[in-house]
């Protein structure tokens, strides 16, 4: 058996199987009374209006993170690719945020945008905008989207840069000789050739937004105000690790897993058709 | 982390998130192992593991207590370990318990009390530990409002009160002077708070009043202070079939008043949990309601003259003011350990309950004294006279409690507090009226109570 397979089995299939199993149980925090309850954990979620509302919030959040994350990092990658002198400095700086833990990213952005002491808040107030993510849901959403996008930009830029550098110069030069401007060259040559990278990153970014962003939310907004930024994975984390409701948390993560698997299938079936390898 | 596995993919992320903490623990364990291998012990000491959540200056206090106890005798050794915030150390202890390596002593915050009590066979009641070890133990020596919180319906003390604080009112004397408010007579009722806030605002103050721990100060302690029930069945003390009751006209009236103050810029919401502490200490907000344990922090960091007063109340409510409710944590003894280890725990708890140890802890940390003797000793030493304001919390607590004010013991309290936070934020933002928000919080909170009841029925 290949060692990779063992890693996948231990770190993916085993915990996923455990989650499936635990989602059918009801147990107290210390696991002293464990009861098989079948679909009760799922049924309860179905009747929970706040849980259903967080699907919409998660959709908005994930689309914003994927779209803003991919477009801004593509722009940065194209610009970084054109830099001639000191290119490594720009690239190192662009990769830097990837080394920051999500919780730290949340805190950094929280400091910048804190209602009373934040530097950015101060500037916004000077411009006449009353910034208050503590009570304004849209502001809170903007805050976590920014933090989540910033955190993922490095990863995206890295792949886009590699993709850009593997595009043969001769193609672009030929187009230039034929009289195509930079804009046209980008959309007719560079972008189609980048599409495998862009597609890969789209899948990865959606998975990132769904699974990997609870620490940002936990540090920046705690899902508030109200439940305006309580995305699905934050509730999984909160119910499992803060509220110690393992059954409910497991049921939610099973649902989340199903959503992401189906989203990935959809992406492979419909978007991949337009990708040129 | 746990033997039984974790929910799906997010588990991996949490694992990396926690990896730093585990590494630190690993390093310190290794260091300890190396040290122990070289230092040949003269005689076998019984070692007791104590997991706590006291960081910074409070961590030094905890380490000092263990060190002092270890130096007073040779048979037992208490090893304190910092395990992160309250919920982190509780999660860690649950994982350790499931894997069979629970610590002997675990510090658990007050909202985790019902969970600890309902988990059968997980803990050994403190009363039993003391009795079995033959230590002198008199539950009536403890301050009633503090010990009552951790006592079973049968009157058995389940955990040892360790660090308890309560809700009080803090104000900035300099800001009061600037607004022409008498600092010797700080507001004691909510109408007076609104009046003071209006005066502060009139002189250009941007944040007249804020609050920390809004659910604790404005709903939980508020209920006990006015001698009304927060939840039925004596706030959950008399059974798991308790239901929330904080949507009475009095509660609605108070939250409505705060919402009005919020709209007029008299009350500024600064976030959940203890987020309201910092704006008061920095001087940005002139008044706040928060924990009495803020004392050390305010004293060290505030660059203005500050004062403390009792929690405001509504003067037209009969029975108000009663007593306020404690927060903080207690020490639980975990099950499945050896008899001599329990003797060590009992000896340590006796040491912690000694009046001089208690009195010193109370004076250095601002936490409440847990025994009456410690309170009297502190009083005699002249500490309260020398440090005005430090006695406010104590006086709010040493009264005789009623069935409605003894404390609150609810299952899934962590979730219920989050629900209250969510609904209050909707009220402050003007998206819901006070009545709508509180009704919804009661309804959603009751679902949590029903679940806890059915999960712990057997």
Give a written overview of the molecule.
- The complex is a heterodimer of chains A (277) and B (458).
- By secondary structure, chain A is mainly α.
- Chain A has twelve helices and two strands; from the N terminus they run αββααααααααααα.
- Chain A has a two-stranded antiparallel ribbon with strand order 1-2.
- In chain A, a hairpin with a 6-residue loop joins strand 1 (25-27) and strand 2.
- The longest helix of chain A is centred in the N-terminal third of the chain and has 34 residues, at 49-82.
- The relative contact order of chain A is 0.14.
- The model of chain A has no long low-confidence stretch (mean pLDDT 88).
- Chain B contains 20 helices and nine strands.
- The two termini of chain B are 28 Å apart.
- The model of chain B is unreliable at 1-27 and 33-42 (pLDDT under 50).
- Chain B folds into two domains: 42-164 and 326-397, Periplasmic binding protein-like II (D-Maltodextrin-Binding Protein, domain 2, 3-Layer(aba) Sandwich); 166-325 and 410-455, Periplasmic binding protein-like II (D-Maltodextrin-Binding Protein, domain 2, 3-Layer(aba) Sandwich), CATH 3.40.190.
- In chain B, strands 1, 2, 3, 4, 5, 6, 7, 8 and 9 form a nine-stranded mixed beta sheet that branches.
- Helix content of chain B is 49%, strand content 13%.
- The interface between A and B is large, with 59 and 49 residues.
